[in-house]
UniProtKB/TrEMBL annotation:
Pfam families (alphabetical): PfkB
Phylogenetic classification of the source organism: Bacteria, Pseudomonadati, Pseudomonadota, Alphaproteobacteria, Hyphomicrobiales
Domain Carbohydrate kinase PfkB, residue spans: 59-317
Organism, as annotated: Gellertiella hungarica
PROSITE patterns hit by this protein: PFKB_KINASES_2
UniProt name for this protein: Sugar/nucleoside kinase (Ribokinase family)
Entry annotated with the keyword Ubl conjugation: no
SUPFAM superfamilies in alphabetical order: Ribokinase-like
Superkingdom per UniProt: Bacteria
Length: 336
């Protein structure tokens, strides 16, 4: 087995988030499904952008946020994701590298342009995403850095990658390489609408052992098994994969491994500002702990800590050092 260089490799849609506040009436007037990721075309992207209020731009994308979170904890992270050779692509590349993440995926010309997501945050902190995938759909097997996969303890990918077809081939190849080198693989179910589109494929990834660790929230777990019985859904997801982490908003998270269930309470917060990136940062904290050999309970606490921090700010990537926050909380031990 080769020497490990990276703790976590994440693979996802490389997206620049454009975030603005709005009220519920704005969502209704513009036909936006609240608290979901809505895929849109270039024309609608232009329309929504023209109707946005004051906005901030922040490099995002689910798996990119997770990689940034792992790096903020002090872990070694890598990322695969496709951008175009344009202004937003350069912003994304600069931002993720500045976080200390290895990112060497080559840009894809200037068309289609780099993906962007118009994110509308309502007063209750919920985010409604409207995503134009653009260059993301160009991610394919040729973008797989086999040596990086082989040298990563865990390779993690987002369920959203099942929307652009060639990305599936890249993911399957990464899983093959990872397992051939004794590594583990992980995925997030991304959102309940994504689960609805690819339920049978996601279940097959889990049951076949292609994926070892699964991240989901309550709604995604219920959607996966088409049930309203959350306890039953937890029992089923535990049976279908080696390890599952299911987040439950203010109720914390449930970690499931075989017949073992570990409930981890949510981290106390002062004020809910924006839920963008909460699940991504939970995965970052959990995987950071997991790759450092921490107990599953500690992993859950690290995930809840990271999620609790990011929901108190605007934007999906930590503005403060998660390592410092972890040390303060007694969850991260600095080297002697």
């Amino acid at each position: 087995m080769t020497d490990t260089t990276f703790d976590v490799l994440t693979i996802g849609n490389a997206i620049v988030d454009i975030i603005a506040r709005c009220d519920d009436a704005f969502l209704s007037d513009n036909g936006i499904t609240k608290a979901a990721m809505n895929l849109i075309d270039a024309e609608r992207a232009e329309l929504l952008y023209s109707r946005m209020g004051p906005a901030i731009e922040a490099s995002g994308g689910s798996a990119g946020n997770t990689a940034a979170g792992v790096a903020s904890f002090g872990g070694k992270a890598a990322y695969f994701g496709k951008v175009a050779d344009d202004q937003l692509g350069r912003i994304f590349t600069h931002d993720i590298r500045a976080q200390g993440v290895h990112y060497a995926t080559r840009p894809k010309g200037t068309f289609p342009p780099t993906a962007r997501s118009m994110i509308f945050v309502t007063p209750d902190g919920e985010r409604s995403m409207n995503t134009y995938l653009g260059a993301c759909v160009e991610l394919g097997p040729e973008d797989v850095e086999a040596d990086v996969v082989a040298r990563s303890k865990v390779t993690y990918f987002e369920g959203y990658l099942w929307d652009p077809p060639r990305a599936k081939e890249a993911i399957v190849e990464c899983c093959r390489i990872a397992h051939a080198h004794g590594r583990e693989t992980s995925m997030t179910l991304s959102d309940s609408f994504c689960v609805g589109r690819y339920r049978s494929e996601f279940l097959d990834l889990m049951r076949s052992g292609t994926v070892d660790i699964v991240f989901a929230n309550r709604e995604e777990t219920l959607s996966l098994y088409e049930t309203e019985d959350f306890d039953a859904a937890l029992t089923r997801i535990a049976a279908d994969c080696k390890l599952a982490a299911v987040t439950m908003s203010e109720e914390g998270a449930m970690i499931l491994k075989g017949s073992e269930r570990i409930h981890v309470p949510a981290t106390a917060i002062r004020e809910l500002t924006d839920t963008t990136g909460a699940g991504d940062l939970f995965a970052a904290g959990f995987l950071y702990g997991y790759t450092q050999g921490r107990s599953l309970e500690d992993c859950g606490h690290l995930g809840c800590l990271a999620a609790g921090i990011v929901i108190q700010q605007i934007g999906p990537r930590p503005l403060l050092s998660l390592k410092d926050a972890g040390v303060k909380a007694g969850l991260v031990v600095e080297p002697a």
